[in-house]
TrEMBL record:
Residues 1-23 form the signal peptide. SUPFAM superfamilies: (Trans)glycosidases. Transmembrane segments: none annotated. The keyword Hydrolase applies. The lineage of its organism: Bacteria, Pseudomonadati, Verrucomicrobiota, Opitutia, Opitutales. Its EC number is 3.2.1.51. Pfam families: Alpha_L_fucos (PF01120). Alpha-L-fucosidase is responsible for hydrolyzing the alpha-1,6-linked fucose joined to the reducing-end N-acetylglucosamine of the carbohydrate moieties of glycoproteins. The keyword Signal applies. This is alpha-L-fucosidase.
Length: 490
């Protein structure tokens, strides 16, 4: 394996020019040349993407409280899981104890699946890229994967069973026609794949690697969100070798961005961007990062989730603004039904975000963090929990509904060139004060969505902006207001 890593490092360094300091790195470190590759600019500019978790788990569409529905099969089998009892009881009562998870595949019909309608909704949401589960941990492939059916010993892809169509290809085509980038989620491991359970190294060589190369060659994804890496180090998964092929030989080489989930040691250590899941993201833009989460507690569609389980459109908009102000991207998940519908509540959340971005997208797309991301109010600043997985993130407490004595984010800042954007979750009565800012004298201040420039002045080190008379009937429900200070920065 050491020899394999050496070859991988040499191939990658020969194929792509690197900064001098990294080109001199020891070739025994296969990650050095891979980590040196800069992300294509489109990803840093896009800011907002959509995740889609869709597969046979959408048939039972069941999760225990605050659990993931797409983990149904594992929850059914693993007695140590906290959701095992609830899932097993539901399964036995609904389908019977002898009903195998794999028998859900024929009922994953996608009867009402309309990829063009999906893509139109995605575009309306304001998302700039879409990432679909090419296969989740159950191994069911949404494209005609020969490896899936061969190693499982039964039809186990969407062309041979269930939808009987190339779902991945259909969404890729429709998404691109709508002007969005298309990407895939790809699980390295498969829970109960017979070959994986028998011999992980053979599974990697005979199943995972050729399957990965097949899906990339067919669809040339612009994003690869790898997952299911935690059982083995990246050397076992042969991830450096695979990524060297991806960046140097694959049809996706020029455009593709990858995450950090390529081995048990790689999260927040290697990859094109770091991931956080149902968390608050990272504090700043020291390294590219992306927060991803579902609209409820699950990624896959769960029939057990009610309105109270769903985050509101306003919260998602405030999350997006907060995440972008700290240099991150936001990947928001939807979980379609087994018959191919995007639940109406999810459509409504997407259109909420899209309506806000239609007015205020200038403060999001293509922006970069300012020297400070936030202006805090008086009060105690909350120590924000950070973490890779399910760290606390109550955006309303951080902005418009603080606990007693706690500070809130009065403003969240982004910049584009010499223009500064101040995103305001709650307007003050008459004047907006931006502390510690002295704009250029010819700065033009506007409120996005209003054509008339706003009067402003300075007071000490602060800038005071006079607010316009707002039409409450028109703007009372706006999640956040954006002030553009054109030419304010050097």
């Amino acid at each position: 394996m050491k020899q394999l890593r050496l070859v991988c490092g040499l191939l990658a360094m020969c194929a792509a020019p690197l900064p001098h300091s990294l080109a001199d790195s020891p070739v025994s470190d296969p990650w050095a040349p891979l980590d040196a590759r800069p992300n294509p600019a489109w990803w840093s500019d896009a800011k907002f993407g959509l995740f889609i978790h869709w597969g046979p788990y959408a048939v039972p569409a069941f999760s225990a409280e605050k659990q993931y529905a797409e983990w149904y099969w594992m929850a059914l089998r693993d007695r140590s899981r906290p959701d095992h009892a609830a899932v097993k009881a539901f399964h036995n009562a609904t389908y019977g104890p002898d009903f195998d998870y794999r028998d859900f595949a024929p009922d994953f019909t996608a009867q009402f699946f309309d990829p063009q309608a999906w893509a139109q909704l995605f575009a309306r949401s304001g998302a700039r890229y879409v990432v679909l589960t090419s296969k989740h941990h159950d191994g069911f492939a949404l494209w005609p994967s020969a490896e899936a059916s061969r190693t499982w010993g039964r039809p186990w892809n969407a062309v041979e069973v269930g939808p009987q169509r190339d779902v991945l290809g259909d969404i890729a085509t429709a998404t691109r026609e709508a002007g969005l980038k298309f990407g895939i989620y790809f699980s390295l491991y498969e829970w109960f794949n017979p070959l994986y359970r028998e011999d992980p190294e053979r599974y990697v060589a005979e199943h995972m690697m050729p399957q990965f190369k097949d899906v990339v060659t067919r669809y040339a994804p612009a994003v690869i969100f790898s997952d299911g890496e935690w059982d083995h180090p990246s050397a076992t998964w042969r991830s450096p070798e695979l990524l060297a092929w991806l960046f140097n030989e694959s049809p996706a080489a020029a455009d593709v961005v990858v995450n950090d989930r390529w081995g048990s040691e790689t999260r927040h250590a290697h990859g094109g961007y770091y991931t956080t899941e149902y968390g608050s993201g990272m504090a700043d833009a020291t390294y590219p990062w992306e927060e991803n989460r579902g609209m409820g507690h699950s990624y896959g569609y769960s029939r057990t989730e009610n309105l109270a389980d769903y985050t509101t459109g306003r919260e998602f908009i405030l999350m997006l603004a907060d995440i972008v102000s700290r240099g991150g991207n936001f990947l928001l998940n939807i979980g379609p039904t087994a018959d191919g519908r995007i639940p109406v509540i999810m459509q409504q959340r997407l259109t909420d975000i899209g309506d806000w971005l239609a007015i205020n997208g200038e403060a999001i797309y293509g922006t970069r963090p300012w020297i400070r991301s936030t202006q805090w109010s008086a009060g105690t600043v909350r120590d924000q929990e950070r973490g890779q997985y399910k760290s606390g993130y109550d955006i309303l407490k951080l902005t418009v509904a603080p606990e007693a004595g706690m500070a809130v984010k009065e403003l969240m800042f982004t910049r584009q060139g010499s223009d500064l954007f101040a995103i305001c979750p709650a307007l003050p009565p008459t004047q907006l004060r931006i502390r510690d800012l002295t704009p250029a004298t010819d700065t033009l201040v506007t409120l996005l969505g209003y054509a008339t420039p706003l009067a402003w002045t300075t007071e000490g080190d602060d800038t005071l902006i006079t607010l316009p008379d707002l039409d409450v009937s028109r703007d009372g429900g706006r999640a956040a207001y954006v002030f553009k200070l054109a030419g304010a920065l050097e």
